[in-house]
Each structure stands twice: as structure tokens, then as C-alpha cells.
Amino acid sequence: MKRWPFAKASLAIYFSLLLSSFIFSCTSKVEPFSVFKAYEEAVQYAKKENKKILIIFGADWCPDCKALNQLLVAPEVKSFVQEKFLIFQVDVGKFDTNLDFNQKFGNPIENGIPALVIIDPKNQESILASTKGGEFSSASQMRAENVLSYLKQFQ
Q1: CB-based contact 12:18 (threshold 8 Å)
Q2: Cβ atoms 54, 116 nearer than 8 A
Q3: Can you give the three-state secondary structure of the chain, one letter per residue?
Q4: What is the pLDDT along the chain (155 residues), one digit of tens a residue?
Q5: Contact criterion met (CB below 8 Å) for 60 and 92
Q6: I need a surface site. Which of 17, 58, 104, 119 has the fewest CB within 10 A?
Q7: 115-120, strands of its sheet edge to edge
């Protein structure tokens, strides 16, 4: 009878090790996030929904990126964007993340973020617009009407 406490502890350790090896084996098989794969899925969805893709390159530390996000949810902009575009946001970190994806579209972040690229998924994924000149890099000084006016050019 004195062996039960030892046996219970051994059994508990055994199941803990078994569980941790199961968790490790499950997590080790998860594929890392690929912005390219997510983009391909977005292209297929946008084609199906008959929408253009609005790629927004930005970062969570960027005040102008945050300002653009707020402008995009302004009622007059939000309804238009929801009807015409699929938004695909790309984190560029401190200009050290997803740079290969950025290059695919001609380096739109070259003159600042947020940078926008508008894609027509039904036309060989052609680039309709790119703010490579830094047009939105001072989004914190823009109004919703400015964003709406820009986007309406590419509906």
C-alpha cells in the first residue's frame, strides 16, 4: 500500500511527458505563415467576389498606418471599400519583414508607409495603382474624403 503514492506520481510524470511530446509533434508540423500563399487565396476569393485587391503595406508601430486604418472605417469610405475591394494588409515590420512580397509589387514602401497597391485579379493580377511615391505616408493629415477620392479612381 505504500507504493501507491509513488506509482501515482510516476504515472502522472509519464502522462505529462506523453502529452508534451504529443503537443511538440503537433506543433512541429504546422507550416509557417506565408504571405504569398495568403495572397494567392485572396486573389481567388477576389475573383469569385468580383472585387479588386487593395494591398496595404504597413506596420503596427506606424502612426500614419493607424490613421489610414481609421480612415478606412469612416462610414463613407467603409461602405465603398467593402463593395469594391478586398483589403489585404501586409506587415513590413521595421522595413525588415515581407520585403520579398514588397518587391513583387515594385517596392511600394520605398518612400514610406502606409503604401497602397491596387490589383485587378481578373486581369493577370495587373497593378492598377501603387503609391510608390509615398502618397499615403502622411495619412494622419488626410481626411476620409481624400482616401475615398483616390480609391474611386480604380473601382
Answers
A1: no
A2: yes
A3: CCCHHHHHHHHHHHHHHHHHHHHHHHHCCCCCCCHHHHHHHHHHHHHHHCCEEEEEEECCCCHHHHHHHHHHCCHHHHHHHHHHEEEEEEECCCCCCCHHHHHHCCCHHHHCCCEEEEEECCCCCEEEEECCCCCCCCHHHCCHHHHHHHHHCCC
A4: 455 454 444 434 444 433 333 344 344 444 567 999 999 999 999 999 999 999 999 999 999 999 999 999 999 999 999 999 999 999 999 999 999 999 999 999 999 999 999 999 988 789 999 999 999 999 999 999 999 999 999 98
A5: no
A6: 17
A7: 85-91, 52-58, 115-120, 126-130
What is the residue whose three cell numbers read 513583387?
A: 104
What are the cell numbers at 75?
Answer: 462610414
